[in-house]
Known about the structure:
The structure is a single chain. By secondary structure, the chain is mainly α. The chain contains 26 helices and three strands. It has a three-stranded antiparallel β-sheet with strand order 1-3-2. Helix 19 packs across helix 20 (369-375), helix 19 (355-367) packs parallel to helix 23 and helix 21 (381-401) packs across helix 24 (441-450). The protein is globular and about 85 Å long.
Amino acid sequence: MKEERPTLATTDKITVAVDQLSRLEKAMILYNHAKAANLPDHVKEYLKSRACLRIIDHENYSPETIRQLCTGRLVAFSGEAEGDHKEISSKVTQFLSQPGEAWKSAYISAPGGERLLCTEIMAAGGAMPLDNLKTRYERAVMSARDRYPSFEVSFTNAKGTFLRIKPYRYGGQLVQFYHPSMRDLLTELIQEDKIMRTSYLKQLTLKELMSIAGTSKESAESSPHRHCVQITDADDIALLRDHIGDNLLPSSTLDDMVALLSDAVAILGTGRIDKLGRKLHDGTECTETLWVILETCVQHACSKEFWRVNLDNSFIYYWRSLFEFLRKLLPLISTPATPEYVPEMLRRLRNDKSVDFWGLVTATHSILPTVVEQCLNLEDREICRKDLIKKVGEALADAQNMDLENDFDDSEYWHDTYGSLSRDCEDYMDLFPDDLPIEENDKVGQIQEDFPRLEREPDYDHDFSDSRSSSSGTDSDILEIFSDL
């Protein structure tokens, strides 16, 4: 190739899409690096003894790890193992299973556009729809001082190396890191580099804010976010506060707010919230960053501005979740706040037959009892209880008339119609334990246990879409390549 393209090794940039390499191509990359490294004979013999197959078939295979392996690591491993092939393989596997250094080397040498895409994915929690990533990249590029390639160019280069695409359950495509170790790498780099940290903070999404809140260093090991960036610098905290207020909260969605508050409760711990209450705020275990996030977001979730943005969201379950979290978190913040839109929300979402609606009423009542009692009669929950009793009877009758054990269509219909009924009945009784019980609900639960949803017969048509990467190059073909190493 050098004869046809003299600039190949000097001015040209080559991106290898690792996820598209065939088995044979992976073997050739390993062979070329090993050949160029002029390895000692005993290391060559190790590779030729089927070790090459284990290396190319490792899930973390990448050209960068192979380069590092052949330019020093293999020789060092062989020396430490005193030539024992089994011990060398153990060390090689350990190296391939922790590819952080390889990713770090590749990331630092990558163009700015690819690094920007990676920090966008990092700031979004490790995954983002492709369309959203394009929008965020182009917005960041417009306000940047440096010049960046187009999204298409940067993404094409990053795909298959740092990033990968998979189908998104809501349609479209989802972008995520090619390997989870990328997130650990970026955490380390962001923590060490002030400029990179500033850029990262400006890219953070609402639902990912709690990943930088964490706990103090003393309790970091028990935190669910112990591997995430720790924000302690006063300038960083001020920047974060402005970013939240100016960029995130004005358009914050109900779904993202619920995700954020859920993470906050997980970090603080339900048991500690119930036991310590406001004392948590005055203690040293939680960081200043956590309280900055919590103070601003909880107050905004109570505001009419938040309601105006989200009033068309009719998913009662999310509103119920929001108020259950607010019930726990409102007593912890230093500035008193109460939800300003409760009457309109209850009128708009009212559904007397919905258990989630009465769960929302219960959570809201614990915050603003007088306001809730002015909006509705709590005794109307009897409508919900009677509806559940009716559905239990229908579920039992249908189960008797259907072949839930053998008929796929019957099983599909029954589980689609009554699959959540037993859980709804239990939920209602947890909300109102003094109400009359919902009889025979235990029989519905037993039917679910005895006759689980039938699975559709599998489609045995073979998918050859991955045949190129999975079967190209037999063991004998690859071993023959290495025979003259």
